[in-house]
Structure formats: C-alpha cells, structure tokens
Design a protein that fits this description.
This protein has about 575 residues and is α/β, with parallel strands linked by helices. The chain is about 50% helix and about 10% strand. It is globular and about 70 Å long. The structure holds cobalamin (B12).
Length: about 575
C-alpha cells in the first residue's frame, strides 16, 4: 500500500462547511434536557466524570460491565439479576455498563429493520432508550458515535441521561450496505457538537483505541499518537471532552499500564481518564483454568496500576469465555465478583510493585507518539488537508487507511519498536500455519483465484488466511473488510476467482452466508464458497436464549463449506477448478 495521496485522492471537490455542520449539532444538543439516571441519583452526582473524580480522591477505583444480550428485554433482565446478586452478597455494585449494541444500530433508524442482524440488542422505541438509565443504578454507556447514525443516536442517548458516549474510533469503519462516507462523517461531527453542548455537566466522547484504525496499528506509538490526533480533533476543534479507552488486545498487564501512562502524559495535566481500562481479550485459550489464571493476573496488576497512578479509569473485567462467544449473565457475574475479591489485594500490592520499568516504557512510547503525530501533521498539511477542519481530517484519514497512516507516522523507524500484541500473535499464527501447511502433503494452488474477505471489522484472521494461500501459490483477490455479501461475490466473479473465502466474527454468519449463497444462485455461478471464524448467530430475537447458536449445519445446507482449519481450506480449494 502506497503512502502517496493528494488532496484530490482523499476528498471530494465540494464538502459542507464544517462550522455549519457542527453548529447544527450544538443547537440540537442545547435543546435536549438530559435525564437524571438511577445511577446519578444513587451516587448523587451529575455524571460519571464527577463520580470518577470522587473515587480518585478517595483512592478507589471504578468497574464497568460489557453487556449485550440478543435483545433489550434480555439485557434488562440480566442487569437486574447482576444488581440483585451484588446486593445479596453485600458487594459494591459495578459502576457502569457498556451496552454492546448490534451493529445495525449504527444505521439510520429507518434502515435498521431490513439490515442484517448480528449479536447484541437493538433499541426500537423511545421507551427502550429511556429504560437504559432507569433499569438499575448502574450508569449506561454505549457506542453511539462513529457510525452513520451518530447524530440521531447521540440525541436519544443524551435525553436518556448517558454521559459517556463512544466509540469515536469507529468513524473509519464501514457499516453494512452504507457507502455515503461524507454523510457518516457529517453525522459524527453533529454528534460531537451535541455532546459539546453538555460538556460542562460531564458528558464525554469515548474512543476505544483498539477499534477502527487504532485496532490495526502494529506499534503502540501509533496508538498513542492517534489518541493525540483524536483528542485534538474532538476537544480542540469540536469542543467536546475526549475520553480514551484501551486494553483489550494486550495481554501483558504491565504493557497495558505503560500505554495508559503514555496516554495520561500526552493528555491534559491533571485529567482523569474517563474511558475504560479493558481487561485482556486475546490471551484466552481452551483451558478455563488457564483463563482464570490470566484473568487474576490481569485484574490484579490493572487495579494496582490504577490505584498507584490514580487515572480514574473504570476496569472492565473480561469473562473467561471471551474466545468462544458473547458472554451470558453468569459469565459476567463470575468475573465481576472476582474483581471485587481481588481489589483489596491489588490496592495493597500497588506500592510494593517496582513500576520503574513500566514508567520508562510509558515515557518512551509517549515520546515516540509525539514524533509520530508531528510526521502525520506534516504529511497532511503538505498534501493540502486543513489541520483546522475536522471534517477534512476525518474523511482524509479514513480514506488513507491505517496501514498507510502508520507508515507515515513511524517514518524511517517503521520497524515496530513497540509492537502491539495481537499483531504479533497474528503474525506468529501466520508463520506457524504456513510452516504446518508447507510441511504437509497439501496440494499447491498455483493460478487458482481466491477472493478473501472479512464480513466485519475483524481483520487478523484474514491476514493469516492470505499468508497461507499465498504461500501455496494462489492468486489472492482482496475481498475487503466489512464487505456486503453481494458486493463480495461480484468482486470475486469479476476477478475470475474459483472461490470466495470469508472469515466472520460478528455473529451474523448465517445471515451473511444466506445472502452470499443467494447471490451465487442469482448469478448462476459455480464458484466455491467457504466460511470460517465464529460461525454463530443469536438463537432468534425473542427466543429468550442468552447465548448464540452454532449455525454450521445451516451454512452447509446452503452449499457453503465451513472450516477453521487452514490445511483443510487448502484441500478444499485444490479441488476447485481454476477459472483463469
Ligand atoms: C480483536 C477483536 C476485536 C477487535 C478487532 C480489531 C481488528 N482490527 O481486527 C475489535 C475490538 C475492533 C472488535 C470489535 C468487535 N467485536 Co471482537 N473480538 C476480537 C477478539 C478479541 C480476537 C479476534 C482476533 O482477531 N483473533 C486473532 C485471529 C488471528 O484469530 P481468529 O480470529 O480466532 O482466527 C483464527 C482461526 O479462528 C482461523 N479462522 C478465522 N476465520 C477463518 C476462516 C477460514 C475459512 C479458516 C480456514 C480459518 C479461519 O484462522 C485464525 C488462525 O489463527 C475476539 C475474542 C477472541 N479472543 O477470539 C473478539 C470477538 C470475535 N468479537 C466479538 C464481537 C461481538 C465484536 C463486536 C461485534 C462487538 C460490538 N457489537 O461492538 C465488534 C465489531 C463491530 C464491527 N464494527 O464490526 C465477539 C464475537 C461473538 C460471537 N459471535 O459470539 C468475540 C468472540 C468476543 C466475545 N466473546 O464477545 N473485536
């Protein structure tokens, strides 16, 4: 991928005036009266920000739940159960919950019903929205910004009393069947305007720095540099408060802490980190004993770091079942109760840990991030992008893509001095799989065209698959990320491919497969379809089942080959007739 872009490559000839767009958002925000939620009343605060400041002054931490059952009724019941179990046990309840909404909530409300379903709840009525803050005294927060529906969702969220609204990092992500990039970015800008109108009462825009571009970067300097870029855009240009969140894709809790130190030192002096401190989501293996040990290690060091450095970030414990599927109520309860049990030990341990190595690493990453941002700014300015125009900045960086941005930011130091863990793990997996396949008696795939795609934002498995197929001599066609099934099939047929290989994770495997197979049927094409990854889907909205179901047999019934084994994939592809 090149790093040579002109203004014309990145921006349309005419763009709306960003000041007018932002002002529309500010006016709409001012017209909203924010509800006082059950949490606000319970804690006697106006916002989580105020609560975080108070907890920090008391030397105490905060915790947050990630939750998203198949629909809002089930999610509500799960929240009530969590609240009751904590009360029964006499334990302090979690402070907040992040509602992991279905991705179609990112589309304008009028398009949602016909859009593909994934795991997680959607909010359909005003009552659903208002329920968010009155169900239990645990403060709701949700990923409402970044998507094409940022503005309308943010207005609903503000009215419901939400005070922490994310996920800004998502502004670079594509949503199903939505190609109006300018419309999406303008909606984000209006949403930031609406939030800025409530900044004084503690409303913040959070950004999960392992999503969007920052979820693809291979070096921690890029992640922290990107956070600085986002902060300047959100706070400096749009007037809303910025709250970075980080941690899920990093298993080493000390590395985790070093990145938080870098985020703190590159942010405003004495700022509380309103975002969350995500527990490890990538170290999990099949053994639950091992996952429990990983969790205890992660929670102890993370809580100790927050106690030591007083960031005020909310710790988000990761359920032990993370690798398999979205969690149910008991999975969530288990790790939150364990967190409460670990807290006193972590606080006690904080001062006894020698943090000097972590502090030095944090300082090094922060210094690298400063240089990184300087290079990105120079590049953008030299290529005619206005550094004072948030609309131009968001559109241009979205179109440049993460890989090119990282190359620009790291400059000649592009050797990844502070490599991110999931990137490393995925590169190692790729090497391992290449070695396994090449040492086997697997057939060569020379000349066989294969379109490889991800059905959603998860891109690491795609890299592993492409590496193995390339080594076997296949002609790889980039099927894209977050691609629509019909577009993927068209792309594959245009490029004369013998097969489509799709990796999927979001819990819409059957929905995607169904549409892909139907498109093949309509085109009368004999192309082979293969899917792998997390092959599940909600058991049916309203079925009252919390956990998703495996849809492998349904995919097979539609003539789609399913496998998670790279060697088996090679065998399947070798049996397809080369088309070119
Ligand atoms: C990293 C990650 C993310 C990152 C992705 C960053 C990026 N740029 O890729 C971020 C934080 C952005 C993310 C977001 C989301 N995520 Co996520 N994510 C993960 C995580 C932690 C790791 C996945 C990964 O990349 N692993 C590394 C790769 C190399 O391994 P792999 O994917 O397992 O693939 C291997 C094999 O399975 C195989 N394979 C995979 N596909 C295929 C296909 C074929 C044909 C073959 C042969 C082999 C094969 O090849 C690889 C070999 O090493 C998993 C949990 C986990 N620990 O697995 C959750 C997980 C996949 N995510 C999940 C969800 C729900 C989401 C969201 C939809 C949540 C939400 N509603 O906001 C969003 C996506 C929103 C969107 N815009 O699309 C769920 C899926 C749940 C389910 N279906 O039951 C999981 C399981 C977490 C959970 N327990 O809830 N996520």
């Amino acid at each position: 991928m090149g790093t040579e872009f002109s203004r014309d490559d990145l921006l349309p000839p005419v763009l709306p005036d960003w000041r007018g767009v932002l002002a529309e958002g500010v006016a709409a925000g001012r017209a909203i009266t924010r509800s006082h939620t059950a949490f606000h009343r319970f804690r006697d605060v106006a916002s989580q920000h105020e609560w975080a400041m108070r907890r920090r002054a008391e030397g105490r931490g905060r915790t947050i739940i990630n939750i998203g059952m198949p629909d809002w009724a089930l999610t509500k019941a799960a929240l009530a159960e969590i609240w009751d179990r904590f009360e029964e046990a006499g334990l302090p309840p979690p402070d907040a919950y992040e509602l992991i909404l279905e991705r179609r909530m990112g589309l304008p409300a009028a398009l949602r019903e016909a859009a593909p379903q994934e795991t997680g709840p959607a909010l359909w009525t005003e009552d659903d929205w208002m329920d968010l803050g009155r169900t239990v005294p645990i403060q709701p927060q949700a990923p409402l910004i970044g998507s094409p529906a940022s503005f309308e969702n943010t207005l609903c969220g503000l009215a419901a009393g939400l005070d922490t609204i994310g996920n800004f990092a998502n502004f670079v992500n594509r949503y199903p069947y939505w190609d109006d990039e300018v419309g999406q970015i303008a909606s984000v800008l209006r949403a930031l305007g609406a939030m800025s109108a409530h900044r004084e009462t503690g409303v913040v825009a959070d950004s999960y720095l392992e999503d969007g571009h920052s979820g693809v970067f291979a070096d921690f300097r890029s992640i922290v540099g990107w956070a600085m870029f986002e902060r300047r855009l959100v706070e400096g240009l749009c007037g809303a408060a910025y709250a970075p969140a980080f941690g899920g894709l990093t298993s080493d809790p000390f590395l985790h802490a070093a990145v938080f130190l870098a985020l703190e030192s590159t942010g405003p002096a004495d700022g509380v980190i309103d975002g969350y401190y995500h527990g490890d989501t990538v170290g999990h293996v099949e053994s639950m004993d091992r996952n429990l040990a990983l969790f205890v290690n992660d929670a102890t060091v993370s809580l100790a770091a927050d106690a030591q450095f007083g960031w005020g970030a909310a710790y988000l414990p990761t359920p032990l079942t993370e690798r398999e599927r979205v969690p149910g109520t008991s999975d969530i309860l288990e790790v939150h109760r364990l967190t409460r049990a670990i807290e006193p030990h972590a606080r006690e341990m904080a001062a006894r840990i020698d943090w000097s190595e972590t502090e030095a690493l944090g300082a090094d990453i922060a210094e690298g991030a400063n240089t990184w941002l300087g290079r990105l700014d120079d590049y953008l300015a030299t290529n005619g992008i206005d550094l004072a125009d948030p609309l131009e900045l968001m559109l241009a960086t979205r179109r440049m893509g993460a890989v090119a941005i990282e190359r620009i930011g790291l400059g000649t130091e592009a050797e990844f001095a502070h490599p991110t863990e999931l990137t490393q793990m995925s590169l190692e997996a790729r090497e391992r799989e290449i070695a396994r396949v090449s040492q086997s008696s697997a057939a060569r795939l020379d000349g066989i065209g294969v379109a490889v795609a991800s059905t959603d934002v998860h891109h690491f498995a795609k890299l592993v698959i492409e590496g193995v197929l390339e080594e076997r001599g296949a002609r790889i066609v980039d099927g894209g990320l977050a691609v629509d099934p019909e577009a993927l099939l068209d792309r594959a047929l245009e490029a004369d491919c013998a097969a489509v290989v799709a990796t999927t994770h979001n819990g819409w495997a059957l929905n995607f497969g169904d549409r892909l197979a139907a498109a093949r049927g309509r085109r009368g094409a004999g192309i082979t379809l293969v899917m792998g990854g997390v092959l599940n889907e909600d058991a049916g909205k309203g079925s009252n089942a919390e956990l998703p179901r495996d849809v492998t047999p349904d995919l097979n019934a539609r003539g789609i080959v399913t496998t998670n084994d790279l060697l088996e994939l090679v065998t399947v592809l070798a049996e397809t007739a080369p088309r070119a």
